[in-house]
Amino acid sequence: MFPNSLPPIRLKQPRPLGKYPDATEGKGKGSAMISWFFVSGCKQGNWIFSWAKALFISALTVSTPAWSQDLTRLPPALQRIVDEAKNACAEVNNGEFALEWGSVQRIDLNGDLRSDWVLNDVGFACSSAASLYCGTGGCMSHFLIEDNVATLLNQGWEMTTIGPSRVLVAEVHGSQCDGIGPTQCFVASVWDAEEKIWRSANAEWE
Predict the structure, then answer these.
(1) 140 in Cβ contact with 157 (< 8 Å)
(2) Cα–Cα distance for residue pair 118/103, rounded to 1 Å
(3) CB-based contact 70:82 (threshold 8 Å)
(4) Can you tell me the distance from the alpha carbon of 29 to that of 32, in angstroms, rounded to the nearest whole number?
(5) Tens digits of per-residue pLDDT, 182-200?
(6) Which DSSP string do the residues of 121-159 spell out, in sequence order?
């Protein structure tokens, strides 16, 4: 079914792209570390899949009924963002909006061992405007902890643990590091449970 000349591929989890960024705000990389699979060329030490297996797994993940069930439980604060995105799409030649797999993620953001919510605009799709929700600066990600929503424009993010703290590491526009669009720049943030805000700081290197 698949020619032998096709190279093997691997499936990995890319970084989540972080309300409608200006197209001049940076250089997007089109990748994210969230819970959808991304197909790329294989490297030594990674799981290798044949083309047939990769396509079979992709079909299973797209059609899983759990995905639609998760959408029905979307918190109101995030549902309002989805509704705004739908309206924005409809205003462009009556476009049809779709919330693609990977838009919603459940992950512990604040270290309380409970799954919080993240809504990633990278999974928003509009039939009449391909670049309506993301620009070269990346896409917005909306982080919901309890009733608090915080939004960050980013080109990819992931959670890590340092000591007792859960830390959100995001790739952002190079200008935030006194560079230009292509300049690699990362920000680390931690949730302040008392003040209900994300805290981060610019490092002072000598």
Answers:
(1) no
(2) 8
(3) no
(4) 9
(5) 899 999 999 999 999 999 9
(6) GGGEEETT-TTSSEETTEEEEEEEETTEEEEEEESEEEE
**pTM of the entire structure?**
0.67
Q: Strand 148-154 relative to strand 156-162: parallel, antiparallel, unpaired?
A: unpaired
Burial of 164 (0-12, 13-18, 19+ CB in 10 A): exposed
Residue type, position 2, single letter: F
* Strand, helix or coil for residue 84: helix
Encode pLDDT of 86-122 as tens digits. Answer: 999 999 999 999 999 889 999 999 999 999 999 999 9
Phi, psi of 20 (to 5 degrees): -175, 90
State the burial class of residue 55 (Cβ atoms within 10 Å of its Cβ: 0-12, 13-18, 19+): middle
Separation CA 70–CA 86 (nearest Å):
18
> Distance of CA 87 to CAs 29, 65, 96, 118, 132, Å?
27, 26, 10, 21, 12
What is the H or E stretch that residue 105 is in?
Answer: strand 104-107
Measured in degrees and rounded to the nearest 5, phi and psi for residue 80 equal -65, -35
Q: Which amino acid is at 159?
A: M
d(CA 32, CA 36): 9
Tokens 């690699």 -> residue:
184
Cβ(172)–Cβ(180) below 8 Å: no
- Tell me the C-alpha distance between 153 and 141, whole Å: 6
pLDDT band at 164 (very low <50, low <70, confident <90, very high): very high
Whether 76 contacts 27, CB under 8 Å: no
